[in-house]
Amino acid sequence: MVDCLIVGAGIIGLSLAWELAQRGRIVQVIDRGEPGKEASWAGAGMLPPAKRQRALHPLDQLHAISHELHPHWAQKLFAETGIDNGYRPCGAIYVARSAGEVASLTAAVESWREDGIVVEPIFVDDLAAFEPALAASSTDASIRSCFLLPEESQLRNPRHMKALYAACLRWGVEITSAEEALAFDIHAGSVVAVRTTRRVWSAKQTCLCSGAWTGALLQQLGISNGIDPVRGQIVLFHCERPLLNRIVIEGQRYLVPRDDGRILAGSTMEEVGFDKRTTEDGVNALIRFARQLAPLLCEAEIERAWAGLRPGTFDGMPYLGRIPGLSNAFVAAGHFRNGIQLAPATAVEMAKLMCGEPNDVDLTPFHVGRRRDFN
């Protein structure tokens, strides 16, 4: 019998496994598919800044703690595995082209400043000096407002997952792929076994970290929840030379430049169930968006497109904590677009909870079993 069974080998599951292993726990991770190849792999890796001193709500505290941890995790993962996860404090430019976007961005800037985040205004006429690839968008007056957040960072999701996987193995974590959890054996208020497609696992503790698939597992345990898949499509441009130095964000869409000249354009938000196929309409819309903001991308090769299923929740907050009625079962899922960003703090706080240590963040607002009130 292992100490901890983690169901799901995405960013949350592997981060938690790494934390638990470092606390001396014997950890087994199982995944219905290939570890780290669902939403965790598919994302763009943007890491918006946050300040712990101004963070009052527990969700903001998770953001702030993760913001502090990410550079340390990157260094530690590299030291343990030799894998560079692509963490870079590159900064981000937020732009608005319509009147509605200008109003939304103005409100966001006020909120960021209240939270102690550094925000620098950019005159539209000066935008080309910051990012020459955006020159055409600024000179034809399509961009009406823009601000720089110099503390925004990024990492490369596939490399980060590869590093986490290697670090877990180094700490003795067993990771099993192609093994889907199907049912739970319950006795005296505890999960005594998890039945999968291949075998039966027994563990002193079980934590569900299965992303968009967690909702169905909770339903099997009689727990109503609001976790649903939300598809996000991304297009990858391959440029002969780097065109952007910073992330560029407009509303819910973005351009994320990599050091090798590639640029990610994302993303859609579609409620289509567990269908993670790309669509012609979705891909073409992202291509148009990218080329409107950075016309030089018209000359870039479209290398590929893909989609992932984010675990959305009805209130935008993850489910974190003990599963009601079960003394040894937990859940950490429902991070929507923020899985990469919130993973370090989520792992630390959940590891503390599972190891009987006091939490620095009040997990009450994330309690398992909360659901949308339809009355």
What does this structure look like?
This protein has 375 residues and is an alpha/beta fold. The chain folds into two domains: 2-84 and 156-227 and 314-366, 3-Layer(bba) Sandwich (FAD/NAD(P)-binding domain), CATH 3.50.50; 92-150 and 228-312, D-Amino Acid Oxidase, Chain A, domain 2 (2-Layer Sandwich), CATH 3.30.9. It is 31% helix and 26% strand. The protein contains ten helices and 19 strands. It has helices at 11-22, 39-42, 58-81, 99-114, 127-130, 135-139, 157-170, 214-220, 280-293, 339-354, and strands at residues 2-7, 27-30, 46-47, 92-96, 120-122, 145-149, 153-154, 174-176, 181-187, 190-196, 200-201, 203-208, 228-238, 247-250, 253-257, 262-266, 301-312, 319-322, 329-333. The strands form four sheets. It has an eight-stranded mixed sheet with strand order 5-6-4-14-15-16-13-17. Helix 1 runs parallel beside helix 7, helix 1 (11-22) packs parallel to helix 10 (339-354) and helix 3 crosses helix 10. The longest helix is centred in the first third of the chain and has 24 residues, at 58-81. It is globular, with a radius of gyration of 21 Å. The protein starts with a strand and ends in a 21-residue tail after the last helix. The model has no long low-confidence stretch (mean pLDDT 95).
